[in-house]
Design brief:
The chain has 10 helices and 15 strands. Bound molecules: adenosine-5'-triphosphate and magnesium ion.
Length: 352
Amino acid sequence: MFFKKSKTLLGLNIGSSYIKIVELKDSGSRYTLQNFGMAILPPDTIVDGTIMDSMAISNLLKDLAESLKIKKKQVCTSISGHSVIIKKILMPIMDEDTVENTIHDEAAHHIPYDIFDVNLDFQILGPSKEAEDKMEVMLVAVKKDIINDYIGVIEDAGLNPVVVDVDHFALENAYEYNYDGATEEVVALVDIGANITNINILKDGTYSFTRDITIGSRMLTEQLQKQLNLNYQVAEQLKMGIPAEGVGKDEARKIIDDSSFTFTNEIAKTIDFFHTSAAGNQVEKIYLCGGGAKLPGIVSTVQELTKIKTEVFNPFANLIVPEKSFDQEYIREMAPLAAVAVGLALRKDTDK
Ligand SMILES: Nc1ncnc2c1ncn2[C@@H]1O[C@H](COP(=O)(O)OP(=O)(O)OP(=O)(O)O)[C@@H](O)[C@H]1O
Ligand SMILES: [Mg+2]
């Protein structure tokens, strides 16, 4: 039917450090932010992408949805980490139905898990530049038990998970929507989370390369704890710039800078690797998101190491954020952490 507005879903990003919820309203040419909220998770609730305390998450999620007065039940969520495998593979040129029928056998060669333990998806990217009779296919595999765990906690919170995506594509969505007019052909979206730093390189807005580094901003908290003999909460606050008794500002900053170098250096190395392997493609801009994007000096460090223009990603850039409903300062502060959740909220009920 013409003019029928498509239904939006609640964007729910269950990170290992914060749960984020974003609700958007389809308001014609642009989306309007309807709801945004976060809840902090205790440190060992999710370890290595695996839910360790499902009750804690479903309770927090339920409380968060209630406190935000969210009516909508349909959720789009995502998974990241080692249970997600995204690979570009070469297959003989064939139509989509034939890929559908053969992808299981093909994937078995590329995935380190039993093929019956994963959910598979794919996208034909186009003809291969390396082999004339081949095409590039993006293969996505996500472990079923992990998907089921996430579905379980969402259902226990009284919500209905209708789409389970992966963080990478949510970020891609958020980028596409908010940076529609971006002139760069090749960009890197880097999500520095608590435990994982996820680097996505997009060419012309679609997937080109992705890599996870299994360190993130949590490591800095741990270093502050260890080196200054602090508890988790105090170290976490110190990292965010809230002074701790008996700790000099410079002392803390040095630990943060030294430790963050481990992952900023890995980001630079990954982008270098992309340059040497992706004939002629140069990353023109780096966008940082995730809580780690808020670390003091991180933008300039990444820019210096890579020699590529770097800025903080703003997933609210193209959204209408009504002044009367939202504290604009809070939205600005939390923007980098909301990137995945916004990308998820942009998915429609009718999407695959
Ligand atoms: N102002 C700040 N300064 C420095 N670090 C911050 C700030 N705000 C949040 N963080 C850190 O960012 C991390 C949370 O970021 P984010 O929400 O992107 O992670 P997550 O999605 O929960 O984790 P992951 O994706 O790794 O599972 C935490 O480690 C938190 O300490
Ligand atoms: Mg995250």
